[in-house]
Design brief:
Elements: E1 3-11, E2 17-24, E3 29-33, H1 40-55, H2 63-72, H3 80-101, H4 105-108, E4 117-125, H5 128-140, E5 146-150, E6 178-179, E7 190-193, H6 195-213, E8 219-222, H7 229-238, E9 246-248, H8 258-265, E10 270-272, H9 283-287, E11 293-294, H10 304-316, E12 320-323, H11 331-343, E13 349-351, H12 357-362, E14 363-365, E15 368-370, E16 373-375, E17 384-386, H13 388-392, E18 399-400, E19 403-406, E20 411-412
Parallel strand pairs: 4-5, 4-13, 5-8, 7-19, 8-9, 9-10, 10-11, 11-12, 12-13
Antiparallel strand pairs: 1-2, 2-3, 4-16, 6-18, 14-17, 15-16, 19-20
The structure holds D-mannonic acid and magnesium ion (MG).
């Protein structure tokens, strides 16, 4: 079954997405997500110039061999741009294979291991009253697990907190990648950070949330790479009374050994990996059981083939999945995650920020969210279609994630 067409579709219905669509000589199509927030054009170029020419005429049935060809054959392997491109090809090939088998993809991954995948949503507020309202809104939407992010007294806008009335979308929508003013150069917005204020404030936030919603509701928090290891150890310890489901990205993830220090001080479960793009980024974290959840997304880690191997290795060490699912993972990438979520043994939880209506006009999805659980549906393949005509109405718009500086101007992790 030869690949006869490979299209890289960049569209921006509410935010930028990069999608690869492969078509076989029999007319079967497959989709793959190649979205890399703020670096979309880099992945588009890698695909168009260095991958698509290699794919045309190749055998669409050879998923593993194609993955190895694109990974080992590139010589300059790994990295977010390369692995997002490889992920898109791999996911599209799995979509094609499942469609040809007339099955939902999860059936080719071993079938269902659960009725649905527990989702968590993003509650946030500039202050505690706003945050509590946001938690209520997410409970009303059916979420049974909720991430808690709050503004910090004395600081301006910070990661994870939706500003009321952002671009007319739902009040709780949070899209960190900002677009330049019309015609302007899209420079990243600079936010100001202060860890001491953050460390003083967050335990009180969880005290208020637990007081309002009780001890049972699974609560998550994203440290978003901003703490030193000892600061992360301190926060993990301070949050133990609030029994978090996880503390995410407590410290910059590439310093895997730093997690040994955090582990010595706290039993708060740890999740890391959304910025990783290969299993090799995890080897210390997994083998020494320094984390409890693997945060990678199919889109950023080389696709379904690579993600399955990573999660099977994690399972050996009792570590579960917690796949990344913000709005900058497209509905195609989300659907790919859901098929793995349903099939693997060591499923933990699935992030689900929910895409905007504008995005869903372009990406027609079959997956469902009901009673707090996500299900990929039994549609053959991934269960997502991309409306090319609708996509053409939303041209790419430059957008960058913010940067963080400390009060004295020192660059910091955002
Ligand atoms: C965040 C992401 O969802 C999360 O856990 O860390 O939203 C992250 O900020 C974005 O994916 C960056 O593009
Ligand atoms: Mg995160």
């Amino acid at each position: 079954m030869r690949i006869v067409s490979a299209e890289v579709i960049v569209t921006s219905p509410g935010r930028n997405f990069v999608t690869l669509r492969l078509t076989t000589e029999d007319g079967v199509t497959g989709l793959g997500d190649a979205t890399l927030n703020g670096r979309e054009l880099a992945v588009q170029s890698y695909l168009e110039n260095h991958v698509v020419p290699l794919l045309l005429g190749s055998d669409a049935t050879r998923i593993e061999d194609t993955w190895q060809y694109l990974y080992r054959g590139a010589y300059w392997r790994r990295g977010p741009v390369t692995m997002a491109a490889v992920a898109a090809v791999d996911t599209a090939l799995w979509d094609i294979k499942a469609k040809c088998a007339g099955m939902p993809l999860y059936q080719l991954l071993g079938g269902a291991s659960r009725t649905g995948a527990l989702a968590y949503g993003h509650a946030s507020g500039r202050d505690v009253p706003e945050l509590l309202d946001s938690v209520r809104a997410h409970l009303e939407q059916g979420y049974r697990a909720i991430r808690i992010q709050s503004g910090i007294p004395g600081l301006g806008p910070v990661y994870g907190v939706a500003a009321a009335g952002t671009d007319g979308a739902d009040r709780y929508d949070y899209e960190p990648a900002r677009r330049a003013a019309a015609g302007g150069i899209p420079l990243p917005v600079t936010e100001t950070w202060g860890t001491r204020a953050y460390l003083r404030h967050v335990p009180a936030v969880f005290e208020a949330v637990r007081a309002e919603f009780g001890p049972e509701l699974p609560l998550l928090h994203d440290g978003h790479h901003r703490m030193t290891p000892i600061q992360a150890a301190r926060l993990g310890k301070a949050l133990e009374p609030y029994d978090l489901f996880w503390l995410e990205d407590a410290t910059p993830a590439e310093d895997q050994a730093a997690l040994r220090l955090i582990r010595q001080h706290t039993t708060t479960p740890l999740a890391i990996g959304e910025v990783f793009n290969s299993v090799y980024d995890y080897t210390t974290l997994l083998s020494e059981r320094l984390i409890d959840y693997v945060r990678s997304a199919v889109t950023h880690t080389g696709g379904i083939t690579a993600m399955r191997k990573l999660l099977d290795l994690a399972d050996v060490f009792g570590i579960k999945s917690g796949m990344h699912g913000p709005t900058d993972i497209s509905p195609v990438g989300m659907a790919a995650a859901l098929h793995l979520d349903l099939a693997i043994h060591n499923f933990g939880i699935q992030e689900y920020m929910q895409h905007s209506d504008r995005t869903l006009e372009v990406f027609r999805t079959a997956f469902t969210f009901k009673d707090g659980l996500l299900h990929p549906s039994d549609t053959p393949g991934l269960g997502v279609d991309l409306d090319t005509e609708a996509a053409a109405h939303h041209p790419y718009e430059p957008a960058y994630l913010p940067v963080n500086r400390l009060a004295d101007g020192t660059m910091h992790d955002w």
